[in-house]
Amino acid sequence: MRRLVSILSIVVLPLLAASTALAQSRTPWQMHDGLEVTLGNPLGLVAFSCVPAQHGDPCEYDVVTIPPGNDPGWGAAPDPDIIGFSLYPSRVCSAPISCGVYGDFTYFQTFVDIPANVVVTTFTIDFSGMDDGSRVTIFNSTYPTGLVVPGSYVFLGGTGTANLQAYVVSGEVNRVVVTQVDDCCIENNLRSAVVVLNGTVVNTNRPPDCSNAVACQSTLWPPNHTYHEIEICGVTDPDGDPVTITATSVTQDEPVNGRGDGNTCPDARIVGGLASVRAERTGTPAVPGNGRVYVISFTATDSGGASCNGTVTVCVPHDMADADLACVDDGQSYNSLGSCRPAKGSAAETTDRLSVGAVTSSQAQIEFALARDTHVLLSIFDVAGRRVATLENADLAAGTYQRSWDPSGANRGIYFARLQAGELTLTKAILKLK
Questions:
Q1: Model confidence over 301-355: pLDDT tens digits?
Q2: Residue 282 exposure: Cα atoms within 13 Å on the Cβ side
Q3: Same domain, yes or no, for 241 and 224?
């Protein structure tokens, strides 16, 4: 039977409103098998509600539902740079009628960041060798539920869409979803997708690599109780993008205020995203310690908004003889940013709370405190109840923590920070004015 190699090119051709455009980027292609896949319908085949007049007929899409952008069913496309999807034999071959009656829908999404100083004059999707058809849906602040126009459909053998420039919004991230339909056995392909902005290919913005991160100053001596700013080295970006590193929390394996540590606290601070820790450790001549280990958690974000998370350690040895030796980590049980507590490290004085600090166009400061060790899920929601960001999802020790949210890609309005700590749920409003 007929089957053509599928090649998809997305062409976004904007002109500049200013002489120099800001950096543009897009996320890697993701793929979703569709909400049509269920335990009762493991292949996700859906009977059309019409009699298609051609392959990829617009009426075929009447039975589809595009998965939300944050649905857990999204995963990396076979080739995140170009999609690279191919299925042989296609699932439609297993349908009761293998051509023209049932459809297998596969979804692909990418998020295209169009700078504010770019005026889009042409936005087209150029297809060749489409098998069997595709439809493009655009999501942004103007069309939050998605928009499909007649010119966004491409049929088997078609060459491209109409100009969709009127539906793209500059100054924000536009979600582009390609819904592909296979309506006839025997093959299902979508080989390549290339995004071009202003005549230039927009490469996938790969996130920074935090795996080799280390503290630039990993050992502190002498233990004179002074703060030392700890810069983080070893973070790289595979695309060569500039990277901003922001410390998010600091913990330690000794009480904030213990015997022989100088009676100073807190033992760390974060100012402007840079963590500082005290050069001190617990121990007395009678009961010597084994050195203090700080763990600094951080987020590294590139200029395109992609990020990675990591941790680095800093050692304060117990005595001069051990200054070049590794400390012993007895477990990160104490929040270095917290207030003074009894030497035993009790969390009894801490109460569960959530607060929102300063909010700018690019950062919202959020602080929360835990009275006990628990699993924490800290998320940001819009007024429609959609999760737009997850800031923390981990088991944390009792103490006080700071996190930040970058709302630069969000519209103006009210958002909500929601903290779920065990059975407790706390919510605070965040107002973005610009």
A1: 988 778 899 999 999 998 766 545 678 998 898 899 986 654 443 344 457 889 9
A2: 21
A3: yes
393, 430: one domain: yes
122 in Cβ contact with 165 (< 8 Å):
yes
Q: pLDDT > 90: what percent of the chain?
A: 48
Looking at the structure, tell me whether residues 259 and 215 fall in a common domain.
Answer: yes
- Strand, coil or helix: 194: strand
**Is the predicted pLDDT of residue 383 greater than 90, yes or no?**
no
DSSP state of 29: P
* Domain assignment of residue 413, given as a range: 351-434
Measured over the CA atoms of residue 140, residue 142, residue 148 and residue 152, the dihedral's sign is negative
* Dihedral over Cα of 278, 282, 285, 291: its sign: negative
Identify the CA nearest to 307 among candidates 383, 408, 216: 408
Same domain, 191 and 261: no
**Number of domains within the chain:** 3
pLDDT digits (tens, 9 = 90+) for 27-69: 888 999 999 999 999 999 999 999 999 999 999 999 999 999 9
One domain, residues 271 and 370: no
